[in-house]
Write a structure and sequence with these properties.
With 304 residues, the protein is an alpha/beta fold. The chain has a single domain, classed as Acetylglutamate kinase-like (Carbamate kinase), CATH 3.40.1160. The strands form four sheets. It has an eight-stranded mixed beta sheet, sandwiched between helices. A hairpin with a 2-residue loop joins strand 3 and strand 4. Helix 3 packs across helix 4. It is globular and about 65 Å long. The chain starts with a helix and ends in an 8-residue tail after the last strand.
């Protein structure tokens, strides 16, 4: 009996703690980039879907952008197509682009949509090609240095960068209580199809929608300093300093750059959170204790 009472009291405490966050974020848009372990482990997948449905039920407008790199890599391997990367970007020829569309726009997207719908939500899957949702242009990688007069320009195929978002599509869906689930595939003025980094798409969407939050799920605890301490709250100026002094390097730079641009362009806060933690999204949005690093454009740390 004592255990039951304690459990009930704990649930009541959690709900009470969530109330001010629900009040603050009702009617606001939160863009979530979904990837990593949270997208491949069954328990985490179901937990994520339930989190998204709950957010919608309490009046928040979640917009999901998903990746799918491991799934693409697996199918390419099965088909005997070699995976190549330049500066973290997948070299995407025509055959690879066909696989990207099949995996991202098909299997992965529909798996997420189905899970959300099974949990009681109303989700609709989209690619950036639908209603010209994501307009893109070819991305070219530039390599050079102080000693190089003419930088080398590397063409990595059907890889794009976002040049525009048709927000009318998203507004129509969220206004009808539908949860958009978006695959990061764009279309160019030349009608070419482009594979786009999911973090970049999520960041641009958050900017265009004037989102309250941009949440990037990762397979790490969050940003850490040189002593390996988790940095839980940072201003954009502090992040700039961490990049300049070499604390933030390598694979985290594109993700941090995406978060930084978002908060500098009107998104209230960006969160790099550990998707390996069950219900990481709800913990970050609706509780006092987050599970990662918060970045804002203000000069001091803030809460969730």
């Amino acid at each position: 009996m004592t255990t039951t009472k304690d459990s009930a009291l704990n649930i009541a405490k959690v709900l009470t703690e969530a109330l001010p966050y629900i009040q603050r974020f009702t009617g606001k848009t939160i863009v979530i980039k979904y990837g990593g372990n949270a997208m491949t482990e069954d328990e985490l997948k179901y937990g994520f879907a339930r989190d998204i449905v709950l957010m919608k039920l309490v009046g928040i407008n979640p917009v999901v952008v998903h990746g799918g790199g491991p799934q693409i890599g697996s199918l390419l391997e099965e088909l005997g197509i070699e995976s190549k990367f330049v500066d973290g970007m997948r070299v995407t020829d025509s055959r690879t682009m066909d696989v990207v569309q099949m995996v991202l726009g098909g299997a992965v997207n529909q798996d997420i949509v189905n899970l959300i719908n099974q949990c009681g939500g109303q989700a609709v899957g989209l690619t950036g090609k639908d209603a010209m949702l994501i307009r893109a242009r070819k991305m070219l990688i530039e390599r050079g240095g102080p000693e190089v007069q003419t930088p080398e320009i590397i063409d990595i195929g059907h890889v794009g960068e976002v040049v525009g978002i048709n927000r009318v599509v998203i507004d129509l869906l969220t206004g009808s209580d539908i949860i958009p689930v978006i695959a990061p595939i764009g279309v160019g003025d030349d009608n070419e199809t482009y594979n786009i980094n999911a973090d970049l798409v999520a960041g641009k969407l958050a900017e265009e929608l004037g989102a309250e939050k941009l949440i990037l799920l990762t397979n790490i605890d969050g940003l850490k300093d040189k002593e390996d301490n988790l940095l839980t709250g940072l201003s954009s100026k502090e992040v700039d300093r961490l990049i300049d002094d070499g604390t933030i390097t390598g694979g985290m730079l594109p993700k941090i750059d995406c978060a930084l641009k978002a908060v500098k362009n009107g998104v209230t806060s960006a969160h790099i959170i550990d998707g390996r933690v069950a219900h990481a999204v709800l913990l970050e949005v609706l509780t006092d204790e987050g599970v990662g690093t918060l970045i804002t454009n203000r000069g001091q740390e803030t809460d969730s």
